[in-house]
Amino acid sequence: MKQQELLNIPPLTEGIDRVDGRLKVTGAAKYAAEFEVPGMTYAVFANSTITKGTIKTIDTKAAERAPGVLAVFTYLNAPKVPGYQTGGDPSKPPSGGGPLKLFVDNTVKYNGQPVAMVIADSFERATYAASLVKAEYTKEPHQTDTSKVLDKAATPKGPRFADYKRGTPDDWQSVPVKLEAEYVVPIDVHNPMELSAIIAHWTADDKLTVYDKTQGVKSTQNAIAQAFKLPPDNVQVTAKFVGGAFGNALRTWPHEIAAVMAAKQVKRPVKLVLTRDMQFYTVGYRPYTWQKINIGATADGKLTNLVHEARAQTSSFEEFTEGTVNMTRFMYACPNVGTIYKITPVDVNTPTWMRGPGEATGAFALECAIDELADKLNMDPIELRVRNHADTDPENGKPFSTKYLKEAYQMGADKIGWQNRKSKPRSVQEDGWLIGYGMGSGVFGAGRGRATVKATMQSDGVLLLQTSVTDIGVGTGTAMTQIASEVFTGIPVSKIKFELGDSSLPPSPTQGGSMITSTVGGAVHDACVALKEKFQQLIGNGGTDKPDYIQVLKDKNIPQLDVTITSSGNSEMRNFSSYSYSVHFVQVKVHPKTGVVRINKVVSVADSGHIVSPKTARSQVIGGAIGGIGMALMEEGVIDHRFGRYVNADLANYHVPVHADIPHIEALFVNKPDYKVNPMGAKGMGEIALIGMSAAVANAVYNATGKRVRELPITPDKLLG
Amino acid sequence: MEDQNKGFEAESNLQPKDNPRRDFLKKSSLLTAVALTPAVAVKAAENHLDEKVAAVFEKLSLDVTVNGVAHKLSVEPRVTLLDLLREQLHLTGTKKGCDYGQCGACTVHVDGHRVNSCLTLAMMVDGKKVITIEGLANGDELHPMQEAFIKHDGFQCGYCTPGQIMSAVACIREGHANSEAEIREYMSGNICRCGAYPNIVNAIQEVKNGGQKV
Amino acid sequence: MKQFQYVRPANQQGVLAAIAQPGTKIIAGGSNLVDLMKHGVMAPDKLVDINKLPLRNISGISNGLHIGALALNSQVAEDQQVKTKFPLLSQALTAGASAQLRNMATVGGNMMQRTRCPYFYDTAMPCNKRAPGTGCGAKEGFNRMHAIFGFSDKCIAVHPSDMCIALAALDATVLIQGRKGTRHLKFTDFHRLPGTTPELDNNLAKDELITGVEIPNNNFAQHSYYLKVRDRASYAFALISVAAALDIQNGIIKDARLAMGGVAHKPWRLTTAEQLLKGKPATVATFEQAAQTAMQGAKAFKDNAFKLQMAPASITEALTHAAGLV
Q1: Pairing mode, if any, of strands A289-297 and A177-185?
Q2: Is the pLDDT of residue A334 over 80?
């Protein structure tokens, strides 16, 4: 079937309003902790105050005696979670090692690790009782400072992380221009506005319903089912609304298993909402990563050598890995390329993917280094990038399915007024502020996975689409509705209902990795096409393309017509490299005396195929840019390594951007479809919206001040002197 | 002296430091007031059998009007307005984002002023009028700010949204929505991690410039 | 949070009687106290809600302005008399916290605000202010936000308020009610340096009540500026803040007031620099000279050495703005 013909791609319009907008603006949208279950109890953790060692004694008597307390669980009395005991890991680890298991023994592996869990009949009582738990520890020496153990970093197991080499990257003998620079991205913490939360409710001895903050209800269902040795169908996981996550709800964390365990034990529903400081200690973060880039180029700006090394932290019990150096292999046409990726364990909780994940960390280094090289060559940074544009994928020689990066450069440059940029740093001053321009680009894989969607035409003419995917705020429901409406032309958007966020619905993958619009969208598209065809068969020859569905159902005397379709990408995809690209442009002003940086203008351009839901897509690009601004200018989780404790585990001291930090942001789209990826021609944009942004800001700050800050965040103190 | 009538002083003077609950129960005068024989009640509390008996003495009466509905409640003084709304009144539109006054997700109006409900003890709104996001619309008819947020896509995940909207309405009422810069400054107490800020500013400007009554 | 008693006395005598009892704390707006109670940093047995007291008024007095202790931060910031006579105070208040918190926080409560030092807030780490004798976590730890003036071996925390920096610069007086009577304290004497007793933030006795502050009339309204340098554009504590007030006549500085925030355990009044400014032309060169003078005696720790540069730059910048040279 010719998708292009079937989907008549309309020009980029304003797009439809968010389909769940009304629920969100009225407070009616229900997030994990907001479901009412009779007999609710409240769980609160008592957490370790040491970083490494063992619990010597733990006194729970006072807590147990406190008013309203139903139970206090520690490793001494917590019932065994059956899946914990058999080696089957209930929570899938990111790569190697095994996840932390709560309350199984007396070891402490990181500061803030829960050592007791109090269940009481009110939140206040549980909180107070948890403060009465007194633990004594036998401390062991700990190390939380990744910068001190970079030399202990080792290559993770598996072929994906082996050193990469193309040509002779280490031969620097005849390289005319060389650049070597080191970059550091600190710990960044997701800090979605919604706190991690779960309500666990056993409805029978072997059956439970879970309202959870998760990016994937199916994976949470499987994790819980495995841990408690239940058939997956006995575990219903619901996440109708997710208050942001940015990666921190991609996996099942130990607290979720603990809540389910507690609910089983007290035989009442248990609500657990992690405190804000626990968002820092226990549900992942972007790992501290040190990077080194070596570039060689000819005097006219052709890259000859490119070596990118990254060393990042992981925990002492799990290997966490991400694609920090991968972009360097294919972003630019360079004959001699090497990448090295290593991880080093420290005594903290395991990191996890945070928006843009490793690619955002890697792009900060690579895109700053390219800027530094341009400066060294006295060449415009866009010109340098264009000269090294990769027309085919240099990593595997495959053609790109589509790539409009050069157009994206041009669109952004035109919009921000790049011609006003002076190549000599610190040469523009307005009203006492230094002005600078910078840009950086980002790239992320654009694949398509497998998803199942049920499409039903109801007797009332409502087209119901059902799949288990979650919407963490990106606008999945809205995009899917729009995709369906492009197949079922003639059905108003208001008559299309997309039901999501429940494990009892047909399976979709976890929301993440910029895969959902392509994967679930593809399945929605295919299901809608199949349902249309089923109607055509029902009507028989001579039927119209846009029948009156209500009438057809009535005439045929059937209550509804439905199809359930599982679909995934086609094999043709393997012959191509498919990526989404972004280019970010910023204009900053920097106060020469105080070092304060303000963002004046932002233009972010996305080359991510056909934009199926323009309104939410624009918001996603703007949001990613703001995340990148935070990463560039203010975000850093700071640990006092003497104690292994964060000194800014809250939103007052871990700064994320506020309204006053953010100017008007222009989001532009190339909007050219890539039909090799999926029938809509759409590619993901959640990650690229952030990837490259921090480099754009750093490059602009350099252009404004002449000061190159290679360790994020670029706080005022780093620009003094 | 209306507060004296509630007996706060009389009650509180009886509470010793270590275990207020049990000592309360030993005061026979109070116990007769709840028509229980002292021995049974004390025993119940000691044995941890009937928390409800003890709880009576740890709670104070609270009269508050929420979204036009008058409530006569009995709350522990440590309960915050936020937890009262979410856990007891089941008005979950008001969000807990940090619980420490650092994010603005819990913003509600108390007697017309925007405050962080997470740092407001429920007892401190005694006799006051609270408006939450659930009380902003006029039945099915959305408040202009709610309409504008939908139109300008002033949110993504929606979790900060009730706080943003309550704050945005207050921002206009206070007279602090006269320029983009002023809106940004006076909305800075509401953090949005998804990054909907520019759209929120557009929404507020539209409502302000539209001159609708907020 | 542990259970506590809550009383709301109807009058001042009731408040004074209640706070004389051990384990009591006054609650006004609650924006700092409730926060500290949630963190387990403070655990009073009884809260004395003083919101029934008639201390909300802002009124002109013969030599200046009287502001009741229960006047809200937002109310003071928006007050027409404050804006006209003491715009510095209005600016400083608006630079602090958020619109919501300013609707809760009172003048008296703002003065009683405790440090935001992370070691003070985290009960799992040492802090002499929270738990005397446990040591100062910040001295050898993370001290980017900490003091460069007036610290002691026991404590290097800073006072977090913006309002107080302006009130210190404006020569305000604190009105205090005790059971034995009233007393007046110079605003600059209200807060104290940590010395050997960092657990004490100020010189208010346990059984005393702040009833208001008074600001004397001055000639600074035309030339004042509150500069707050911070890691983000709003809703953040100061790295450095400067309250600058000048009385300039014919280009000559007749009188000056300068105070700094984010540098000491109390609002840091810069009297030497003020003296230096007097009689000098209102030029950037003069301001730079004053800024250098103001920095005498400053000493930095591992993470806050930048303040030695940022502070004088901020003083110069604030004075330049105050003088209208920007």
Answers
A1: antiparallel
A2: yes
Which architecture, in CATH terms, is C224-322? 2-Layer Sandwich (3.30)
pLDDT in tens, B34-74: 444 344 444 444 444 444 454 556 899 999 999 999 999 99
Residues of A in contact with B151 (CB under 8 A): 17
pLDDT in tens, B114-173: 999 999 999 999 999 999 999 999 999 999 999 999 999 999 999 999 999 999 999 999
Exposure string (b/e) for A128-156, b if CB count within 10 Å is 16 or more? bbbbbbebebeeeebbbbbeeebeebeeb
Asked if the C-beta of A716 comes within 8 angstroms of chain C's C-beta atoms, the answer is: yes
CATH architecture of the region A33-141+201-278: Alpha-Beta Complex (3.90)
DSSP bridge partners of A579: A445
- A720/C236 CB distance under 8 A: no
Domain covering A399-446+576-719 in this structure, CATH number? 3.30.365.10
| Helix/strand/coil percentages in chain B, nearest 5 | 45, 15, 40
Q: Alpha-carbon torsion C2, C3, C9, C15, what sign?
A: negative
| ipTM here | 0.98
**Tokens, residue A631:** 């990463």
| Runs of H (alpha helix) within chain C | 12-19, 33-38, 73-78, 80-85, 87-95, 99-102, 107-111, 118-121, 163-169, 187-190, 271-277, 284-294, 307-322
Q: Where are the domains of chain A?
A: 3-29+448-568, 33-141+201-278, 399-446+576-719
**Residue A687 falls in the annotated catalytic set:** yes
Residues C132 and C154: their CA atoms lie apart, in Å, by 9
If DSSP states are collapsed to H, E and C, what string results for A177-221?
Answer: EEEEEEEEECCECCCCCCCCEEEEEEEECCEEEEEECCCCHHHHH
CATH 1.10.150.120 for domain B144-210, yes or no, is yes
Amino acid letter, A430: E
For residue B116, the chain C residue with the least C-alpha distance is C100
**Shortest Cα–Cα distance, B40 to chain C (Å):** 24
With a pLDDT cut of 70, the percent of chain C lying above it is 100
Instruction: Confirm whether A33-141+201-278 and A399-446+576-719 share one CATH topology.
Output: no
Of 3.40.50.300, 3.30.1330.40, 3.30.365.10, 3.90.1150.10, the CATH number of A3-29+448-568 is 3.30.365.10
